[in-house]
Amino acid sequence: MTALGKFVHGTRTFGADVAEGFFEITHNGFALLGLSVAFAAVMLSARPDLRDSGEEQLRTWLQDRQVALIGTPIKPDAVERATATNPKDLPKAQAAVAYWLSKKYRVAPEPIGALVAEAFDLGSRNKLDPTLILAIMAIESGFNPFAQSPVGAQGLMQVMTRVHSDKYDHFGGHFAAFDPVSNLRVGVRVLQECISRAGSLEGGLRYYVGAANIEDDGGYTMKVIAEHNRLRAVATGRNVPITSPMVVPPPANPAAPPAVLPVAAPAMPAAAEKVAVLAADDGLAVATLP
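Below the sequence we write its predicted structure tokens.
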């Protein structure tokens, strides 16, 4: 064999040895990696607390990285707390009511859609006309979930939180008064008890407004029933004109916020403050509304 032939043969042998060694190392490395993964999987299956801790650490690290990139805290579950439903996904009658209320009270249709759907569900459960529930919300708060009267009535249905705090226990506490759906559910309970006590819708509304024992309710019952009738007509597909709301001048007390009422509704006398009333053991528990 010539020197060139020996060189070529030696080179081939060297290359084969290197390739074989690389294969052995790689094979053993993959085997070791596979064993490590299998061992980790067994450990995580046996110790779910370790798995949860690892997932939480990884999630926190990823969120911190995202915050560093965009410069603001990340709340991926925020959408779950939003009170919103696309009215297009609602039944025809509910969608019509949602769009009508959205235009009249100048609020977004998606939150109104969620409230309309909830009102229809509550109405069915409690044998109340859902458009009555919506009419009371409209007159009481103009669909402002953060509304508060000078004496502390709060939320969409303007129920006095400190009087009805026990009703919020099922929703996590009195701060639930500012959760639109929770406030709506508590308000419906108060309304239902008022109607049951009075024995009629009109009488129940007078109890709700705290005017059961006085001659004049300031036009409250008339306003609620008028809005109720408009919403019932909308739900049946009729074309009901939308009137622009007007702002009633605030009372002498500078801390009292103005009330937003429909144009056709007269201003309520200062002496006839609206109150939500609930029957108590020895009388009435009164919750003053704006």
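The mean pLDDT is 77.
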